[in-house]
Amino acid sequence: MLIAEAVWADRFRRPPWYLRWLLTVGYVVLSLPAVLLLVGPDRRDRSIWESTGASCRRTFLRPLSDGLRPGAFLVSPDFRHVARMGWRFLTLLVLLAAFKELLTEHPRWTVGCAAVLIGLLCTRLNVADHVIMAAARSQEREKLLDFLEERLRWMQAHCDEIVIVAHSQGGFLAHQLMTRDGGRNQSKVMRLVGVGSGLKPIRLLQQLRRPLVWAVAWMLPTASLCLAWGASPLIEPSSSEIAAGMLMYLEATMPALVVPLGAQSPEFTSAMLDSVAESMRQVQFGLLFLGDMPWERWAAIAVSAALTLACGLTIRFRIRPTAERLFALPPSNGPQQLEWEEYSSQHDMVGRMLLPTLPRGVEQEATPVLGHPLGDHTRYFDDDGLLTRHLAARLLADVESSTHQSLGASRWAETVARYERALRKQHDRRRCFQGVLMLWVAAGSLTPRMARGATLVDAVVGSWQVLAAATVLLSAAFTWRGRRSHRKLVAMLDAELRGEPQPAPSVTIVAPQHRAAATLALAIGAVVSFLGALGLTMLSGLQPAWNVRSPGAPMIAAFTLAALAAATGSGYRVRRAWIAGAGLFACLPALASSGPLGSTAPAWAKAPGGPLAATVLVTLTLALVSLSRARLVHLPEASSNCSPSVPTAGKALPHSRRSADDVESGVRAGGRLAGAPRITR
To answer: In angstroms, rounded to a whole number, what is the distance separating the alpha carbons of residues 414 and 435?
Structure first.
């Protein structure tokens, strides 16, 4: 039994078309905290919410110890939590900046876009109205449940056992159907499967009508705003002495990378060391900046801490105990209890939500789809989807248990599980690579503006065009690449299920514990190359007689090394030729420039950019050594069975994209199975 929007979308009464848009916008505004959870933590951040059983002291000291280890940011869960939240808030700021620019600079376009949006909200394409109906209109919801219950009654009269597959808002409706009147509808229903379910967001919208939950939902954003404003003198480069000192340090060390060693006199070295010492004093002064903060800032921080503490205590003792019972299904009256499973992609904006939590054992491992927040929600049942093949394994297991025939369900399930793990790791690697590249773009776009005194928010607003273009281009490129790799692995899975010989594993990932050294070395080489390119450009203008050639070559090396560092840190295997090519570009000014004409120093000591070339070569050598010793993981893993093909009537399935009805008809055609079919789709 499939419960999707196509089944029930025309079975409830909508508000008049001229009021539909206004009611939708008003409901979104009143439920703004729930909307903000779309950029909040997801299922990958489960460790934030769940208790680990460790003491408070260990929980506090673990992030501190991780922060002291080089490269811990690559594997630390805490850093991944912060990175995901930072990426989402950066995207949100870019969208708000784009909206502000559209509203202030192009009012006619704003009016046109608003008219188109209002027109869409007035039509039957207003999917948000479906969510509002399920969450807030109890009469219409009960009528819809009556309709679904009538269809379920028909299924119960004609089938022995029923499996319900519910997608999106259907997950909430199916859950309501199973909890109605103490679980009276659970008769003959053996399994409830939620796919990208809207159960969590709709239930959260319902809970916002409770005054206590509503207050907590608004207190958390308020606490975040108070903390951001109170701590802004410490985190904004315009008023942070630490950031100013770091910029002074980079400016002081930049000449040492490009000036030839033979031209670095004792006076030059002394001046550089004095500048470095001054920058360090400024950093130390910035660390003591807390005493100069006005009382208003301290009051805002205290209010933020008090609100956060109040929210934590309220959630712990008043909300969480009831939330754990919120989704519990009543026990079934039959001999077999109802199995409840929830599947979602890691990136599906509807199904990935962390809160509220479901009962233990309900949420399954993430289903690899495509890796797109919007596209994943509608692609679970595509021809190249892994979820359909996973459900087919469950179907075969059900048929085996009812007919006592061996159909190879365990081998099918094991094969699908191996490819699911491979696709999940591949999606994580690709998503991490995209995020680190976006981090490099953001750093290059925001740093110049922040160095001129802009705050972080002002820098994002001022650079929203570059950030928006990079976001769209990277998303399009990685989505296209992800679709190709996904289809390739699914084709391999289908071939293996048919019993065909398999090629070598197509996914090679560097083990996480062997990425840190190479990533740090390549990142340092990228930063040094970038600073060297700026210094060589300045040196060519200050000393034209030195004949500085190709001052922009280290900039190409910097961009290349930055991309290679992002790829290595994400788990990609980087070719050594690319690293060698980037090193050649970094050394090109030192090899092609002549340097001071009257100098009697050796050629290597009077070449501009010589220290830069030596530094980059050292870092790249360390990276190459680390990469040569890294352990590689090949996915998918080798099968534990000799032949993973699934026999049906004496032969393998011709193709794994067969529906449940096709599989069942194939089993019955074998002439070995007696009795009526027991699985209904």
So the answer is: 32
